[in-house]
Amino acid sequence: MEPVATEAAPATPPGPSPAPGPAPVRPFLRWALRVTITLHALAVLVQAVFAGRFMSGDFEFLDAHFINSQVVGALGVAQMVFGFLYWRPGGGPLRVAMACLAVFIAEPLQIAAGILRVIGVHVPLGVSVFAASVVLTIWAWGPTFGRRR
Prior knowledge:
Blueprint: H1 27-55, H2 61-87, H3 94-115, H4 119-140
Helix pairs in contact: 1-2, 1-4, 2-3, 3-4
């Protein structure tokens, strides 16, 4: 008796192959936003250190706190620009651009409240900016960063 030849089942089902997922956001935009978000978060952390030193009696840190506020503001502008480029034309999620915009709007208010010594607004708004910066930084270094929506 002759053995019956059997055909092995194909590894993939017949028909068209599945479409690949969307291409990730361009590397330049991913890295520009990631680096800007990280530098911004570090500058915001330094702001809190300078404020703490000032409030503990090292009054010369008030000048450093003011100068660093300009660095934080400039990085906030860059973060907002890269956040929107990451969204359009990059194809990243809109929520990232909106988070960057919210920080961008909050920071001039934060700086103005500090200059005018409205501490009841300045401190809570500073904590909010710090929290938003931490959340953005965690996202920027997380596994979903760089994916299109």
